[in-house]
């Protein structure tokens, strides 16, 4: 069996797609790799809360921290691991989103658990945007009899066609999408999706807000929450929030109605058969959520950084830039080319790991820039100058 593993690894090497781990030391906006200081342009710490010493100290001084100083739940929530802080945080989220909340250990746990348990209900069809996260696909594939079709990224016309062709054949149709897509960096056409949903009685929307929660929408409450107009939010049946990005913590939550919350509690295997996340981590997520309303200046800084850099990048790489907000991708084409850019940028002092196929489709290999609020604008301008120089060298 070992020789088969080695053959598989050799194939990855040949396609410039072999993953490996390397030690990284973190220092605020920077990382050290092989002793070299690099500006980190690959972090999902969008509001810089994880690296903010004042924010962390405020949490350590809080009663929330002192009352929940447990490094392990030591059990699943259905046994002895249901600490009070879990229900406090869930009830807080329920008041904001007007849906019932259930905490999971991570976004991956949330998606694989809820989607697989929905798939087991029977005569359902899942319509999945081709750019949804791997955890959505893993959730679908974990149940052998699931029916699902994929539509081109954000292609509303194709989604409409699939709904019209299939709505009479299934008891329910679930549309899988993301609030802000992790690779393309663009937003789901949620208004159009909701309009389509309302044309049928058996359509549900499943929206993953992993990359938009905290950094977008009124008070940072995400794409579905918008500017506080809850009509769209009301039509999202399953809303996934994750806390390991802009919230600077770890864990996730699925918001749905009471019946589905009880269903997931009983059938989502990633929830049932896992030791619950440490209460201290839940307390940190709760604390971060409490502070979101006061972080509008951070979100404004993030938006300014995003618009500034996108403008610079479009001048250097016309028609090769993806992204509408804090995630921007430079499409380079080819794993080897993306890796070459990554290495040259490291020499110049920037940390941006290449995104290779099959994580993205062939031909879409890229450098994915993940921006944070506290990066000085002059650093982004200097980064653009370096990119312009490399591009002029016709790499």
Automatic annotation (TrEMBL):
Catalysed reactions, semicolon-separated: 6-carboxyhexanoyl-[ACP] + L-alanine + H(+) = (8S)-8-amino-7-oxononanoate + holo-[ACP] + CO2
Alphabetized InterPro entries for the sequence: Aminotrans_II_pyridoxalP_BS, Aminotransferase_I/II_large, AON_synthase_class-II, PyrdxlP-dep_Trfase, PyrdxlP-dep_Trfase_major, PyrdxlP-dep_Trfase_small
Pathway: Cofactor biosynthesis; biotin biosynthesis
GO biological process: biotin biosynthetic process
Name of the protein in its database record: 8-amino-7-oxononanoate synthase
Enzyme class: transferase
Family in the record: Belongs to the class-II pyridoxal-phosphate-dependent aminotransferase family. BioF subfamily.
Cofactor names: pyridoxal 5'-phosphate
Keywords assigned: Biotin biosynthesis, Pyridoxal phosphate, Transferase
Domain Aminotransferase class I/classII large intervals: 37-386
Classification via Pfam families: Aminotran_1_2
Subunit note: Homodimer.
Keyword Hydrolase: no
A molecular-function term among this protein's GO annotations: pyridoxal phosphate binding
EC number(s) from the headed UniProt entry: 2.3.1.47
């Amino acid at each position: 069996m070992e020789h088969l593993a080695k053959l598989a690894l050799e194939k990855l090497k040949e396609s410039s797609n072999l993953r490996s781990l390397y030690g990284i030391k973190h220092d605020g906006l920077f990382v050290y790799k092989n002793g070299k200081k690099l500006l980190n342009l690959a972090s999902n710490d969008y509001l810089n809360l994880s690296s903010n010493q004042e924010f962390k100290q405020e949490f350590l001084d809080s009663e929330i921290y002192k009352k929940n100083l447990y490094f392990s739940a030591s059990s699943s929530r259905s046994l002895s691991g249901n600490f009070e802080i879990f229900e406090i945080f869930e009830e807080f989220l329920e008041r904001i989103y007007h849906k019932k909340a259930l905490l999971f250990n991570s976004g991956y746990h949330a998606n694989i658990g809820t989607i697989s348990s929905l798939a087991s209900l029977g005569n359902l069809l899942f319509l999945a945007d081709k750019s949804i996260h791997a955890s959505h696909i893993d959730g679908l594939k974990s149940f052998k009899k699931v029916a699902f079709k994929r539509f081109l990224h954000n292609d509303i016309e194709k989604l409409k066609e699939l709904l019209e062709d299939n709505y009479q054949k299934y008891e329910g149709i679930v549309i899988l999408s993301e609030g802000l897509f992790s690779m393309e960096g663009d937003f789901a056409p949620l208004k159009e999706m909701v309009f389509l949903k309302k044309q049928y009685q058996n359509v549900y929307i499943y929206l993953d807000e992993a990359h938009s929660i905290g950094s977008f929408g009124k008070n940072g409450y995400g794409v579905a929450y918008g500017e506080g107009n809850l009509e769209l939010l009301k039509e999202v049946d399953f809303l996934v929030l994750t806390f390991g990005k802009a919230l600077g913590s770890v864990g996730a939550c699925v918001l749905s109605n009471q019946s589905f919350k009880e269903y997931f509690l009983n059938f989502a295997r990633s929830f049932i058969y896992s030791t619950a996340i440490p209460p201290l981590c839940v307390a940190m997520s709760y604390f971060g959520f409490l502070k979101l309303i006061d972080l509008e200046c951070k979100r404004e800084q993030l938006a300014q950084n995003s618009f500034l850099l996108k403008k610079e990048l479009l001048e250097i790489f016309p028609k090769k830039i993806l992204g509408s907000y804090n995630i921007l991708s430079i499409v380079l084409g080819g794993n080897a080319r993306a890796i070459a850019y990554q290495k040259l940028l490291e020499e110049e002092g920037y940390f941006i790991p290449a995104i290779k196929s099959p994580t993205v489709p062939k031909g879409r290999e890229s450098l994915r820039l993940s921006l944070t609020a506290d990066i000085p604008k002059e650093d982004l301008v200097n980064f653009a100058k370096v990119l312009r120089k490399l591009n002029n060298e016709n790499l």
